[in-house]
Amino acid sequence: MTAQFSIHVAKENLKFSAAHFIAYPGFREPLHGHNYQVGVRVEGALAGTGYVIDFGLIKSLTKAIVDRLNERTILPAKSDCLKIEQLASGQVRVAYENDEFRFPAEDAVLIPIVHSSAEELARYIWDELHQALASRGALASATVLEISVAEAPGQSAMFRRQIGAA
Ligand code: ZN
Known about the structure:
The chain is an alpha+beta fold and 166 residues long. The chain has 2 helices and 12 strands. It has helices at 55-69, 118-135, and strands spanning 5-9, 15-20, 23-24, 27-28, 32-44, 72-76, 83-86, 91-96, 99-104, 108-111, 142-152, 155-162. Zinc ion binds at residues 20, 32, 34, 151.
């Protein structure tokens, strides 16, 4: 195996503030929020450009993903215990056992995860960023993409996967 380089980005502007609650059958957290910090690590070979991958591209694509989550309530569309409905009134109704929430649709973001844990958010951001990078042909030298999501300083979850190539 050839030498590997890695780059790591966790800039101030890759933060998002969002509300969420974890829900399982029989247990639900109260609605609360975090100031999340996203980090991106890419490992790979050095391309002819002298880069593994362009920092600017990583920053702009990751920022576009976190901006869609910022100042929203994150709702896990694949939840096994929440019933989430888009109402004709322009609201989103979320039912859990005997409790009910309603959010203006523009205040909520539905994402295809089961629980809005930092782990599942990291995997979601991984999928979105991987797709955005792959569609731009930006992963030619990359071998591993890793996303970290910190709910608080010093407390983070990571999702890491090989992306073939090199
Ligand atoms: Zn939380």
